[in-house]
Amino acid sequence: MTDKTVPTLYSFRRCPYAMRARLALSISGMTCELREVKLSAKPQAMLDASPKGTVPVLVKLGGEVVDESIDIMRLALSHNDPEGWLLRDDADLIARNDGEFKHHLDRYKYPDRHGSDPEEHRAAALGFLTDLDARIAASGQLCGPARGIADMAIMPFVRQFAAVDRDWFAGAGIPNVGSWLQGHLESALFKGIMTKFAPWVEGDAPVRFPA
What we know:
The protein is about 55% helix and about 10% strand. The protein is an alpha+beta fold. It is globular and about 50 Å long. It starts with 7 loop residues before the first strand and ends with a strand.
């Protein structure tokens, strides 16, 4: 069963890329049919839409596919941006997160998978987090006093990094990042996008997102 009146979003609850997409969709109020994906058993409908097989994938009405998370964010906010997130953007900082920081994050969190030294990559990632800490100390958020697209694009990855070793993170000398992260994790917006759903299978009743 498919809701043919709204776009379809393939997502995975814990994926930071999917989180950033859901954050923007939620704040914009852009309604979708949410299909939670089990990564070990990706639905054929998602693979038909986006053969690269990564989430998130947004299938627009008419069939156009958007399968880059930052593009989904910008699309949703272009339709409705009630908090002015697009005014607080930094494409270079987001690219640094998605490139440099994500590289070290993966090798810190999954050393067996990558054959890496986790402490080496943790130390390398700290340089990026130190830069974030200085920005937050100066303005409260990454690009000003209020949350914006830069914060919401980067925060899910910092969340993942912090969770690897919470005690180390708490003592890493980046207190502003810690407070910033905790504030976003405790927000109604973040809690609202983290609702658990069973993996979607063909024939399931549509799930509207945001609820």
